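Friendly challenge for the regulars: who can give me the C-alpha cells for this chain first? No prize, just bragging rights.
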Amino acid sequence: MGWNRSNPIPGFAICWFNTVEFLIEHEFLFPIWKGLSRAMVRAQQGEKDQAIQDLAAIAKDTERAAVTRVSAIDALISLDAHHPTIELAQALFDESEKKEDFHLAIDVARRLHSLLEQAGLSEALHTLHERLEPLHA
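First reply, four minutes later:
Bragging rights claimed.
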C-alpha cells in the first residue's frame, strides 16, 4: 500500500478496522477476557480515564473469574492508576482471604505489596505482611 495525499498515514484506516475486528474476535474466542483488551485499546486512543473506569468495574465484578479480575488490576497498574488499584487489590485480597483461596490471596498480595511500597504506605505494608505470615505457613 503506497502513501497518498488523501491518507497521509498509510494503513491507518485499515489498522483501526483491524483493531475493532480483533476486539470482536478476541471477546468471542476468549469471553473470560471480555472488556480487558477493549479498555487497553481505549487507553491507547487517549480515553485513559474511561479505560480506568472500565477496568475498575471488571476488577470489582465478583461474578467474573478471579484471573480476569487480577488481569484488570495488572492493566490498571500498567496505566499508572495506583490509587484506585490499591483499593481494588485490597478488596480482592480481603475477599480471597475470606474465601480461603490462599493462592489467589498471595498472588494479589504481590501486586498490593508493590503498590503500597510505591505509595509509601508503610503502615498498610506492615499490616499486609502480618496478614501474609499465616498464609505462607
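Residues 1-14 have pLDDT under 50 and may be disordered. DSSP finds seven helices and no strands in the chain. Your move, everyone else.
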